[in-house]
Design goal:
69 residues, mainly alpha, 3 helices
Length: 69
């Protein structure tokens, strides 16, 4: 794991992503549906995940620790 070039998400970041997918909807007036609601697209999820790294810090979000996550 020490030589892995890819970022591994922590348990906190995984739970944040699950909450993004399950608990967030967007009101989009350009939609033709009656309620004009939609789920996040991949770009919006990526932006919010990046913001979580900036707010919570690298060690809490994308630093994998076997004792913690």
């Amino acid at each position: 794991m020490e030589m892995n070039p890819f970022a591994l998400s922590s348990k906190l970041e995984a739970e944040f992503y699950i909450n993004l997918c399950n608990n967030l909807i967007i009101f989009d007036p350009s939609l033709k549906s009656k309620d004009k609601l939609r789920k996040l697209n991949i770009d919006e999820k990526s932006i919010l995940l990046t913001r979580s790294i900036g707010i919570l810090g690298h060690d809490k979000t994308f630093f994998w620790d076997p004792n913690r996550g």
